[in-house]
Design goal:
With 818 residues, the protein is α/β, with parallel strands linked by helices. It is built from 27 helices and 31 strands. Helices cover 47% and strands 16% of the residues. Helix 4 packs across helix 7 and helix 22 crosses helix 26.
Length: 818
């Protein structure tokens, strides 16, 4: 096969988009893009995941950054959420039975704020009505009546008791220790001397009567206490009746308004009971004593316990909520309980300081979070799984278990969770979670993967035009004409190095649209044309290719030695790719091979110097397999060879130079020079088949730049694998040089084809005598290997002979010498 048979014509070196394919003049005529471009698989997965209502069918949207994951899911969710019902409001109210807790209530959308307003109105009404009712004549009359009844009953009891004591010569007297019964003599108390002078019978009589009267006193006191309790109960009942009369006008309408909401009605009953118990808080407060020179603020009773903390208000929500949480920390996602520092450094809180998280706001709708952010924030991932498992959102102090001292805080009731959670992240994070976290598969059962490249179809090409139109319209950019769109599509095909696919890295494409608009506007144009797109590409390259230019200066100076003309035995130009993040370019390198007699096999100098990676080492081992299968059929493969990337001081990885190294090795074995005008890339398998590699455009352009700086001769070019032809998207300059015959691209499928192009000598095929034909390169290789094997055998026999010959005795040696 000749060089001309393998040469690729200029019209197959790139895909050129014909502007006539488009049925519009400018993108201003086109509507906005309302869907993702070329992501049918991902869109179908998203539709399935959003439609599944069973537990655990949350979504993981996978894809590389810039593939329109966020914008697509945002657009889909907003369209879908508009047609879905509003979720319920959630509020927190005081738990009157347990002050360390808070009660969560769910109400129809918009009713949460209504309940809060109604409770404020209720408290204001009660605060105004109760003091007025306390000042009413009816209330005063009833209290007076109760107190008079109490006093009258007590008075009768004590009068009867006093009457009985007087009849028995005793008197009822009040002392420091209380009421006592004492005997009387002539209207006065006995003195101690008089009492001691009494006869024993008289003293015993007085003691007996005193004891009986004391028992009667105790009975009276018991009746008084019962009467006092009854009076207190009566006063409380009077206050309760007063409170009920004031509350009835306000609470009854609320009961009717919130009928059917059992938990809300139970809360209203609790409010009523608490108000009736604490009616004193509604009474006018007595002024506090003031200390001269010090103003003490008046302590008014607080009615905050009747407030309603509206946690989630969906009154103004249009359809289901869609929440994008950019910073999913624990508090931002699950809510928090705030505290207020009071005098003395004491932190206090109550149910009104409960704040919602993104899960609360998205309840009944959709929550979109970044997978990486979820994993790097402490406690978030485990807490999120717990919420999904239990179907509840609990607001907890996550740091409580790590404190030396516990703090008094709230334990609010959980909120029921009904949210579809969408995590967005890279495929790497997806597989990391899938294999390392068994719970992940239970809670995120749907994967929607965005591809970084899409097939080039007419529909996709038109969608790209819609994408450009949308960006130009939204960002006030200059619109593109048909030539601008055509050039942009060629640029996206170059991004993925494929003639049949386009890039889906829409973040980079959007930036490129902005840059092209900038240069067109700077030149005073009203539309972006193909020339403006080309200029944007050149300017972008100029901003980032400083290191590549420095490298080419070294080629021009001869500091890095690469020949582009002549022929050398065991020397060939290899191609590699250097990636610097924002710029990628090809770098030609000289590869040399030296062969000598020995059994060391092939020595990879890069490996010995620990500069090669495992894939490169594998490629070197494949060369041994090819040489053995090709040349060691009838004899062992005995050789020593060293292969080296000259002037390479960095790490080398990949097998794209394995065929290049094999060419250099075959040249060194055969003693046939290799053309230095040709650079080679491609990996090889053990059967000598050339396999595809990556970065083919960068490699070709890298060698072209070196040839251009040293002078194009018309013999220079690059040899690539046949399977890489579809990946060619070369620049205009190099395509023009190839069309003019000043540069060439060859594609080969086997080592035999490649070595013929490089040396001008056929590789040869074994004949019936199991030998390669004379005049072929492989015959020379075979003869060289046979020669080295023969020399090794002779060397081995000589060494064995020397080891088997016995040493000559010294005496005999002296005799012979004499």
């Amino acid at each position: 096969m000749t060089q001309n048979d393998c040469r690729i014509p200029a019209d197959r070196l790139r895909w050129s988009c014909d502007p006539a394919l488009f049925d519009f003049e400018t993108t201003a005529e086109l509507p906005d893009l309302d869907d993702a471009i070329g992501q049918k698989r991902a869109l179908r997965s998203i539709e399935f995941g959003l439609g599944m209502e069973a537990a655990g069918f949350n979504l993981y949207v996978a894809g590389e950054t810039g593939t329109s994951r966020n914008s697509t899911i945002r657009s889909i969710l907003r369209r879908r959420a508009k047609n879905e019902p509003k979720p319920q409001d959630w509020v927190y109210v005081n738990n009157f039975k347990d002050s360390d807790s808070a009660v969560s209530l769910s109400l129809p959308a918009g009713r949460g704020r209504e309940l809060a307003a109604d409770m404020k109105e209720l408290v204001e009404s009660v605060r105004d009505a109760i003091p007025k009712a306390l000042e009413s004549k009816e209330y005063e009359f009833r209290r007076s009546e109760i107190l008079e009844k109490y006093q009258h009953a007590n008075s009768e009891l004590f009068q009867e008791l006093e009457k009985g004591t007087e009849e028995h010569g005793f008197a009822l007297q009040r002392t420091v220790s209380g009421l006592v019964i004492v005997p009387q003599k002539e209207g006065r108390n006995y003195t101690q001397e008089e009492y001691d002078a009494l006869a024993d019978e008289e003293r015993e009589r007085l003691e007996r009567i005193g004891k009986e009267l004391t028992e009667r006193l105790n009975d009276v006191l018991r009746q008084v206490r019962e009467s006092e309790k009854a009076t207190k109960d009566a006063l409380q009942q009077a206050d309760r009746d007063l409170g009920m009369s004031c509350l009835g006008h306000s609470l009854d309408p609320l009961r009717e308004k919130y009928a059917g909401l059992e938990k809300v009605l139970a809360y209203l009953e609790a409010v009523q009971e608490d108000i009736l118990i604490n009616l004193d808080d509604f009474k006018p407060q007595a002024p506090q004593p003031q200390i001269p020179g010090i103003r003490i603020p008046r302590q008014e009773p607080t009615f905050e316990r009747y407030d309603v903390n509206v946690l989630v208000d969906n009154a103004d929500t249009c359809g289901a909520p869609v929440v994008f949480e950019a910073n999913p920390t624990y508090n931002n996602l699950f809510g928090r309980i705030e505290h207020v520092m009071q005098y003395g450094g004491v932190a206090v809180t109550n149910f009104t300081m409960i704040r919602p998280g993104a899960l609360h706001r998205a309840n009944g709708g959709y929550l979109v979070i970044d997978a990486r952010e979820v994993l790097i924030n402490p406690f978030v991932w485990d807490s999120l799984k717990r919420c999904i498992r239990t179907g509840e959102i609990r607001i907890e102090d996550v740091l409580e278990q790590y404190r030396f001292m516990t703090m008094v805080t709230l334990k609010p009731e959980p909120v029921q969770l009904q949210t579809k959670i969408i995590m967005i992240g890279t495929p790497w994070i997806y597989y990391l979670l899938f294999y390392l976290d068994p719970d992940y598969r239970k809670f995120f059962k749907v994967k929607a993967e965005f591809d970084s490249r899409v097939p080039r179809t007419p529909e996709v090409m038109r969608d790209y035009a819609l994408f450009v139109a949308t960006h130009c319209r939204n960002e006030n950019l200059l619109h593109f004409d048909r030539s601008g769109i055509a050039r942009l599509l060629e640029f996206t095909a170059r991004m993925v190095e494929d003639q049949h696919r386009l890039s889906a890295q829409f973040m980079e494409i959007a930036d490129f649209i902005r840059e092209a608009s900038y240069w067109a506007r700077k030149d005073g144009k009203s539309l972006v044309s193909g020339d403006d797109v080309q200029r944007a590409a050149r300017e972008k390259l100029y901003r980032v290719d400083r290191i590549e230019e420095r490298l080419h200066e070294l080629y021009e100076e001869g500091t890095i030695m690469v020949d582009t003309d002549g022929a050398v035995i065991g020397q060939i130009n290899g191609l590699s790719v250097i990636g610097l993040g924002d710029h990628t370019f090809g770098r030609p390198s000289r590869i040399t091979a030296r062969v000598y007699t020995g059994r060391a096999g092939m020595v990879n100098i890069e490996r010995e110097a620990k500069l090669s990676g495992p894939i490169h080492d594998k490629g070197m081992l494949i060369l041994t397999g090819y040489l053995g299968g090709t040349f060691a059929i009838d004899q062992p493969l005995s050789l020593s060879a060293s292969i080296c990337f000259e002037q390479s001081y960095d790490g080398i990885e990949g097998d794209s130079a394995s065929s290049t190294e094999l060419y250099a090795l075959l040249s060194a074995l055969a003693g046939v020079p290799i053309s230095q005008s040709i650079a080679v890339t491609g990996s090889v398998n053990q059967r000598g088949v050339i396999q595809p590699i990556g970065g083919v455009n960068y490699k070709i352009e890298g060698f072209y730049a070196v040839c251009k700086s040293q002078g194009l001769t018309g013999r220079q070019g690059v040899m690539i694998p046949k399977t890489n032809e579809q990946h060619l998207m070369l620049g205009d300059e190099i395509v023009a040089a190839i069309a003019a015959g000043m540069f060439h691209i060859w594609s080969v499928e086997s080592i035999e084809q490649g070595i013929e192009i490089l040396t001008g000598m056929a590789a040869g095929t074994r004949g019936r005598n199991r030998r390669f034909p004379k005049g072929t390169l492989y015959r020379l290789v075979e003869e060289r290997l046979s020669s080295m094997e023969l020399k090794l055998k002779q060397s081995d026999r000589s060494r064995r002979k020397q080891r088997s010959t016995p040493p000559v005795p010294a005496a005999i040696t002296l005799h012979e010498e004499s």
